Amino acid sequence: MKNNIASNQSVSSTEKSSINNQKNKSRDLRGIMVRASSLALLFGAAYLVYVLQGDFNRYNLNGLDSTWELAFLAVTGSLLLFRAGFFFYNLYLYLRYKPINSVSNEELPTCTVIVPAYNEGKQVWATLKSLAKSDYPSHKIQLLAIDDGSKDDTWDWMLKAKKELGDQLSIYQQPENKGKRHALYRGFNLSTGEVLVTVDSDSEVTKDTLRNLVSPFVVNEKCGAVAGNIRVLNNEKKAMLPKMLDVSFVLSFEFIRSAESSLESVLCTPGALAAYRKKAVFGCLEEWINQTFMGKASDIGEDRAMTNMILKQGYHVLFQRNAFAYTNVPEKYTGLYKMFIRWGRSNVRENIAMAKYVFTDFRESSKAGSRLLFINQVLKLVMSYPTILMMLFFISMDPILFLSSTLFSILIWSSFPVLFYAKRYNLSESFWAYSYSILYTFGLFWITPYAIATASKRGWLTRG
């Protein structure tokens, strides 16, 4: 009888393994088909551009017969030259960048890690467990978790983490949901560490993340904040958006923030993983918690706002490529565009705030890099509406020509993130950059103009 039970369990285990393998193969096959289709579409567009050379000639310089058309060409050409020049400047800065190695245990400062959570469920338990496994000296770390009035079982999972971790963890519960900014504010005021680390409750860190993230504060006394390196946690599931976003995140953090770090002016320390000098935080804490935009309390963009206010105090803001956090991202289009709208609105608000100090004598060290980064950000916002108008104009004039030239441009510009990801991580996964660029160009182009028009609106959007 026992042998039969064992045999049945063995068969059951084998069947489960077979089903899982089939599911993985199905996901892999679908992913391969999507990437292959994206490449086929882009190369097909390149061939179409070649075939339609005669039609392109209608739009060359000889065909321009008005001052307005010449002015349009001059402005467009200047912007393209600026964008190309800025890309090569970023490439130069990236090549100069080097992450700071971890300092010794004796040199590491005391550190408070704050994890705000709202309706996170079991994931908050996994987040806290990953932090507890850090190789940071235990007597130098304070771990705080704050439930921001969750309506699900988040508090139960915090209690479970507390039971398992004991004195390593302190947990608190807000009487009502007041927003992430208020949960962090409570954590900041409860902190005892010289450095304050914020980690999102849907993120997990590696063993050496904290010590790598905090080390720049020891090496650079002017360092006020440090951004962590964010990768995607849920990119192993069947959804394709996380796979695309992982490639996008690698470019955004490991290339763009590396370049910004070379200028000591990283513009945003992400909520998923960031560290702040306590003195810098308390230098702007009341302004930050009471921040408003157009007369309304700010309930989004707390990470970008904190970064902005710390830069304004004259501190350096750096990026640590060797400090990883893996975070969950939206798996459906609805969640993705809502996340981007929130980020877009924050970007508009903080660029307005940055304009008030970036051309002043806000710090002793070089300010040119910060100003150039600001100008680049503003140009992206300013050109969003003209870009859409141009797109609509060319679609009405010649849709085939517009579609083929746009896809050909994607093939050219997206090849860099493909090569970058392939060199850093994986060749086959790098081709998701093409798929993501197609999605963004045709499915998310409206985000920035909409975010500008609705910048004063409140709401997290992606939290129930």
Give unreliable regions as ranges. 1-23
The side-by-side strand order for the widest beta sheet comes to 3-2-1-4-7-6-10-5
Alpha carbon gyration radius:
24 Å
What is the number of helices? 19
Number of E-type strands = 10
The biggest beta sheet is recorded as:
8 strands, mixed
Terminal residue distance: 50 Å
Q: Report helical residue fraction.
A: 55-70%
What do the pLDDT scores average to? Answer: 91
Percent of residues in beta strands = 5-15%
In sequence order, what are the helices and strands, one letter per element?
A: HHHEHEHEHEEHEHEHHEEHEHHHHHHHH
Approximate shape: globular
SSE-based structural type: alpha/beta
Offer a quick outline of the entry:
The protein is an alpha/beta fold and 464 residues long. 59% of the residues lie in helices and 12% in strands. Strand 2 (141-147), helix 5 (154-165) and strand 3 (169-173) form a beta-alpha-beta unit.
How does the SSE layout of this entry go?
Elements: H1 2-51, H2 53-57, H3 67-96, E1 111-117, H4 123-132, E2 141-147, H5 154-165, E3 169-173, H6 180-190, E4 195-199, E5 203-205, H7 209-219, E6 223-232, H8 241-262, E7 273-277, H9 278-282, H10 285-289, E8 292-293, E9 296-297, H11 302-312, E10 316-327, H12 333-355, H13 368-382, H14 384-397, H15 399-413, H16 415-424, H17 427-430, H18 432-443, H19 447-453
Helix pairs in contact: 1-15, 1-18, 3-8, 4-5, 8-16, 8-18, 11-12, 12-13, 12-19, 14-15
